[in-house]
């Protein structure tokens, strides 16, 4: 698949936002250890999980996002493509509260105004993010990484010395199976392959039961086989979760088969089926090349 990958230059990643800022937010968002997805309190009566309208973000006068409008349906698997610097990661920064837009509207469901919420509040309400570079706890086992992800803001030591309950263990085991890491449960995360670290980070979002998953270049650096498995995993997650996937790997995007949004200079250039956007002259001009 690497032959179809458009070159990119990565940006430094930062740590996960700590989920669960306070008890009341956590309650409002649903018990993190319960069986409901986080975000089950989100009003999606119009079948829209994420709504961005005319979002603008400037860095020293440079418009990273320029009236970006986008709408994601409940259970949708949306792919976002576009050249380096198009604003894809900045869009995720706005959705997760890391960057405040200068203007525009961003809603999670009908009622949660993301521009007025903190990063931990947004994570506790049901939006999980995977950064471009894997950020796992290398000195802890795969299993412990998932325990830490489930327990949220508690200190790592308190989490590791607390009693392990059966429901937690079961949920972790099921998730490990889903991302094909069962046999690695007791290995130190630092010893995993790059692809396995990516899966572990996705598993961390799954044990948190995040309703909307933002995945920034999840198959970058993966082997073809790992990339195919990741496509299968994402297809199995769609419906139950909503996914927004940023990628440069066109074979991977084709395997996912969903609607594609092309970003360019901070706004939407084209949107539709991959074959349609691939034959769009403007998209060929700015991204895919002639
Ligand atoms: N914190 C920041 N300060 C200044 N400029 C920034 C900052 N974050 C992003 N930018 C700029 O905003 C533009 C959009 O960057 P962004 O990282 O969103 O692009 P991208 O579409 O994710 O690109 P890539 O495919 O390379 O990951 C770039 O020109 C980038 O240099
Ligand atoms: Mg990026």
Overall number of structural domains:
1
Bound molecules: adenosine-5'-triphosphate, magnesium ion
Beta-strand percentage range: 15-25%
Q: What top-tier CATH class fits best?
A: Alpha Beta
Q: What's the overall average pLDDT, rounded?
A: 85
Number of helices: 11
- Helix coverage percent of residues? 25-40%
Using only C-alpha atoms, the radius of gyration works out to 18 Å
CATH structural fold name? Rossmann fold
Please state the second-level CATH architecture: 3-Layer(aba) Sandwich
Measured distance between first and last alpha carbons: 19 Å
The CATH superfamily title: P-loop containing nucleotide triphosphate hydrolases
Poorly predicted parts: 1-35
The general outline is globular
Order of helices and strands: HEEEHEEHEHHHHEHEHEEHH
The tally of beta strands, per DSSP, is 10
Short description:
Helix 4 packs across helix 6 (about 165-180), helix 6 (about 165-180) packs across helix 7 and helix 8 packs parallel to helix 9 (about 250-255). This protein has one domain (about 15-290): P-loop containing nucleotide triphosphate hydrolases (Rossmann fold).
Which SSEs are present, and which pair or pack?
Layout: H1 23-29, E1 48-59, E2 62-73, E3 77-81, H2 88-95, E4 103-108, E5 112-113, H3 119-125, E6 127-130, H4 142-151, H5 156-161, H6 166-178, H7 194-207, E7 212-216, H8 224-237, E8 242-246, H9 250-256, E9 260-264, E10 267-272, H10 274-278, H11 281-288
Parallel strand pairs: 3-8, 3-9, 6-7, 7-8
Antiparallel strand pairs: 1-2, 1-4, 4-5, 9-10
Bound molecules: adenosine-5'-triphosphate and magnesium ion.
Adenosine-5'-triphosphate binds next to helix 2.
């Amino acid at each position: 698949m690497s032959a179809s990958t458009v070159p990119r230059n990565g940006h430094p990643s930062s740590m996960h936002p700590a989920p669960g800022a306070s008890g009341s937010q956590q309650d409002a968002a649903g018990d993190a250890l319960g069986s409901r997805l986080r975000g089950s309190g989100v009003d999606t009566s119009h079948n829209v999980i994420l709504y961005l309208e005319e979002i603008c973000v400037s860095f020293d006068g440079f418009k990273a996002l320029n009236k970006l409008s986008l709408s994601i349906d409940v259970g949708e698997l949306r792919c976002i493509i576009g050249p380096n610097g198009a604003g894809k990661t900045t869009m995720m920064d706005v959705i997760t509260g890391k960057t405040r837009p200068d203007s525009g509207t961003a809603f999670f469901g009908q009622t949660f105004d993301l521009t007025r919420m903190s990063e931990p509040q947004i994570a506790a309400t049901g939006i999980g993010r995977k950064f471009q570079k894997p950020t796992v706890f290398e000195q802890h086992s795969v299993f412990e990484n998932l325990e830490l992800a489930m327990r949220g803001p508690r200190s790592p030591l308190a989490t590791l010395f607390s009693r392990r309950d059966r429901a937690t263990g079961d949920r972790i085991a099921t998730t490990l199976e889903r991302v094909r890491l069962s046999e690695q449960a007791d290995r130190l995360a630092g010893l995993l392959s790059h692809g396995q670290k990516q899966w572990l980070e996705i598993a961390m979002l799954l044990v948190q039961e995040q309703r909307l998953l933002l995945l920034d270049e999840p198959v970058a650096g993966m082997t073809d086989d790992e990339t195919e498995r990741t496509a299968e995993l994402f297809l199995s997650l769609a419906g139950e979760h909503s996914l927004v996937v940023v990628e440069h790997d066109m074979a991977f995007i084709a395997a996912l088969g969903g609607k594609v949004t092309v970003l360019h200079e901070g706004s939407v250039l084209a949107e539709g089926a991959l074959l349609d956007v691939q034959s769009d002259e403007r998209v060929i001009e700015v991204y895919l090349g002639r």
